[in-house]
Amino acid sequence: MKANQLTLLPVIILLFVSASCKKNKIPLPPPTQTKVYVVGSEDNSFNVGAAKLWIDGTEKSITSFTGERNYGIASSVFVSKDKIYIGGNEITEGKSKMAKLWDMQNTTTAINAFSNGNQFTLTDGTNEAFVTGVYQTINRGTVASGTVSHGNNYIAAFWLNGIVRELTDGTREAMGLGIYANDAVSYIIGYEHNGNNYVAKVWKSDFSYTALTDGTHNARANAVFLSGNDVYAAGYEHDGISKNVAKYWKNGLATSLTDASSFSTYANAIFVVGNDVYVAGYKRQNTTSRACIWKNGVVTFLTDGTKDAVANSIYVYGNDVYVAGLESNGSFYVAKLWKNGVANNLTNGTKNARANSVFVK
Fold first, then answer.
1. Which of these, 32, 171, 244, 254, has the minimum number of CB atoms within 10 Å of its CB?
2. Homologous superfamily of 37-360 in CATH?
3. Integer Cα distance of 164 and 358 in angstroms
4. What are the pLDDT digits (tens) for 29-45?
């Protein structure tokens, strides 16, 4: 998920040690089989993007149309017990970018993933719109974050079961970039211009909001996560001198993720387990970007910095840390999945591709 992830509850295993159990060990049940879901895009033969889903590394097409003026991008994935939910956008010839949702049964084996699923076009293509995050709740249904437009400016918005709710009035540019939801409320992350600079914000589905920055310098919030009663966000803010500084906020209080160097850092995703805060993003070094994660503020680089790479999404499952992103091979960008720092290529590197969101279940 881009920042739209499911909170995992810790499992406490009580071990009772006695003479009898040492002699007669009770076999433990086999571990639950997990799957790794990644969404993104890969250029087609016309060198325009086609939305993709990978399940355990196996590619499944989402969009079925072809043509040099038709393309799609999958931005976010959420998996429930029975279904896979994906948010993104599509363009068909003669239309603007259209906000899109897909869902499918989790048991599919079809190469075209949505041959047995559903596709929902949330906008008509008259004005540009796109979905940036998707979440499925038990009682409220499907919620999605995104951006719509009616004229010159983008408007931060969310959809509840396909019905759009606009969070800003369109007088100044704003974007909704991610979502976290439960059965009581949805949190939408993004930014809004104040007339001088961009202000990082988190909105609630009741249309209230919290400004994470004061608007003195440009800032952007890219991801949101709810842990208990605490609301976490990740993004970046310019330092007012020379660089952007990756940050995460806990209930509005900022923590900077940077060092003494002059290089900019960017936070794209966040995941929280107990007291551990994981953030994914990248550090800009000279002419390249270096994918990295931070755990409780300590950075770990996923790439060596010789070629461009970006971490877009993070998911923590048990002791494993999954990161989705992209890295250049010198000619094209390759969609990548890192597990505990070890890279796996999702595409073969002959066309540009990217991985935008990861979910593990």
1. 32
2. TolB, C-terminal domain (2.120.10.30)
3. 25
4. 445 679 999 999 999 87
